[in-house]
Amino acid sequence: MSDAKKFPAVGLLTVFGLGSAAAAGCLTGSGWLMVQQGLTQDAAASLATAAVCLGSFLSGLLMSLLQKGKGLVWGAAEGALFVGLLFLLGTLYQSEWGTMQFVRAGLVLLMGVLGGIFGMLRAEHRRR
Predict the structure, then answer these.
(1) What does the H/E/C string look like for 49-85?
(2) Rounded CA gap, 122 and 56, in Å?
(3) How far is the CA of 110 from the CAs of 1, 41, 54, 83, in angstroms?
(4) Alpha-carbon distances, residue 4 vs 8, 11, 17, 63, 75 (angstroms)
(5) Could you state, in chain order, the average pLDDT of each consecutive group of 10 residues for the chain (128 residues)?
(6) What is the pLDDT of residue 58?
(7) Which residue, 5, 46, 62, 107, has most beta carbons within 10 Å?
(8) Alpha-helix residue ranges (DSSP H) falling in the chain
């Protein structure tokens, strides 16, 4: 028998769901803000990117806190789930991926990694 830990697929998907719920709540708030301030549809792309980045950051943070380490890996895994979702929805609703879609995907991945790193640092700080 090996002492290796099992891959926490259920935890990974649960935290992804929590991050997605946070992104959805942020998108709802962004929609309300657009209506109240009379913003044009040009602001929708940047507000949506910010909301998905927030969800990716939060899920990377939570996953690294739950796993108590390897924040870079868990943050990248959560960010990759969000990038995969963006890619899937982008291919379903758009004909091709332009430069801005790749920039958004990179930002989402980066925010997941940063969330994982902050979660790892927070877990190390608690141990002291």
Answers:
(1) HHHHHHHHHHHHHHHHHHHCCCHHHHHHHHHHHHHHH
(2) 17
(3) 37, 26, 11, 10
(4) 12, 17, 26, 18, 21
(5) 64 87 92 90 87 93 84 88 88 79 91 90 70
(6) 93
(7) 62
(8) 9-37, 42-67, 71-93, 99-127
**Given its phi and psi angles, is residue 69 left (phi above 0), alpha (psi -120 to 50 degrees) or beta?**
left
Name the token pair of 115. Answer: 């969330």
Q: According to the model, what pLDDT value does residue 1 have?
A: 43
Separation CA 89–CA 4 (nearest Å): 35
Q: How many CB atoms lie within 10 A of CB 41?
A: 7
> What's phi and psi for 72, nearest 5 deg?
-65, -45
In order of 13, 21, 35, 107, the CA distances from 42 in angstroms are 32, 24, 13, 19
Structure token digits, residue 1: 């028998």
Tokens of 127: 């141990």
Token pair for 22: 């946070």
